[in-house]
Write a structure and sequence with these properties.
- This protein has helices at residues 48-52, 78-82, 94-101, 114-119, 133-143, 150-173, 197-206, 220-237, 254-258, 266-273, 293-302, 324-327, 334-348, 396-407; strands at residues 9-10, 23-24, 27-28, 36-38, 58-59, 67-68, 88-91, 107-112, 146-147, 191-192, 244-250, 291-292, 367-375, 383-392, 414-418.
- By secondary structure, it is α/β, with parallel strands linked by helices.
- Strand 13 and strand 14 (383-392) form a beta hairpin.
- 48% of the residues are buried.
- The structure holds iron/sulfur cluster (3 copies).
- One iron/sulfur cluster (SF4) is lined by residues 36, 52-55, 57-58, 68, 73-79.
Amino acid sequence: MGSVSNIKTFAPPADARGGDVEFEGTYRKGELRGIIKINQDNCTGCDTCSAFCPTDAIMGTLGVAHAIEDNSCVACGQCLINCPFGAIEQMSFVDEVIKKLDDPKSFVVAHPSPAVRVALAEEFGAEPGSVTINKMYNAFKKAGFHMYDVNFAADHTILEEGTEFIKKVKYWLLGERSKDLEHVSHHPFPHFTSCCPAWVRNAEIFHPELIPHISGAKSPIQMGGPIAKTWGAKFIWKVDPRDVFMVPITPCTAKIFEASRPEFNSAWKYLIKNNEIPSDTPSFPDIDVVLTARDIATLLKKKGINPLEMSDEYEDEVMNVYSGGGTIFGNSGGVMEAALRTSYFILSGMELKNPDLTPVRGYDKDLVEATIPVPLKDYDGKIIEIKVAVVNGASKNINKIAKELVSNQNKYHFIEVMNCPGGCVNGGGQPVRTMGTSWLHPLLPLPIRA
Ligand code: SF4
Ligand code: SF4
Ligand code: SF4
């Protein structure tokens, strides 16, 4: 049987988005801070969390209650899922979403990530994977959500990221020059993925020299928000975009932070520019709030809905159509694999004989390297070798790669970085059962510092 999480949550406090100043430490106005916090009353000072923190954001010595330094924290939740005592808590928007679901004017959209559909069953005491996709959709519908599967948006991320990578290949490896390629002249190899917000914040704070290398493609949920509030609202749901309330359901606590970043209001900008909403409409975000896998289980339980008991029949909807490429985003190497499939097809004019690019799958290794030969259809079949690396599980390898990058920019062309071990399947918002006992419990391993 699966296990049910006993992680505590808290509603965002009044000052969660900071004050009126533009910058406060590493936060801009409006950005959520303190998403993950240690409850001092429950912390034993065992120091286990420090070993899992990618940014050394946890303060405290052995035996003394620890605390998180928010300016260094990337909100990944790895400390939370590894604290043996459930002393670490997560900011949650469950009550706000329930209020929206009860408001007849709001059009509340569930936007579930690939890793959540596997994990949800655990929160209801069953084996991972036993809630099928259709059962999950039906549970969300019963709770009052409209559906838009994030895999559809992940396909957009792949197209965007793959196209950007191809442009870099043409400019930097093949020496092509055209107006269309001008902007990549400022963005050399290696190309880094951008869909993990913990990695992006980590780079912004600790490795700013890598910023020109990071893809400009948005993460899947940030692709999904503007699509929902423009095309989806207008052509599919036929509702006022200002009434759409977007709720990604993710394995990730860092996405709670990402949603609050001020630049992510593309739908509002587009709708104003195209006179689709009054010009004095105040700015609204592409993503309204994010729920974790644990949060959605709490919400369903509050509403008395058990996804395991739902029907397995669900009518196809255009917002839930997607490819296998979007689905594998949840695993380490998945983003790289999906983007390479697209790039290979466009550059060679052929489908990969075996689309399963197993050499790039990270799984339990924190660094994987591979070389992928690609024949070029526009260069008489000339073969180029794409050198890739997949990094997962915190930033230890990023420090190494950053140093190598300074000395040898040609070592890799494409680097995927996912903060969590094995990728989003082990994200900070996934099911977890802490021991809830004394730290002297005989089964508890001694804390190890990284
Ligand atoms: Fe405290 Fe939990 Fe960290 Fe141990 S792992 S120091 S109990 S917060
Ligand atoms: Fe460190 Fe992540 Fe915990 Fe923040 S949320 S303290 S970055 S492990
Ligand atoms: Fe979130 Fe996935 Fe990055 Fe973990 S690896 S921080 S779950 S996006």
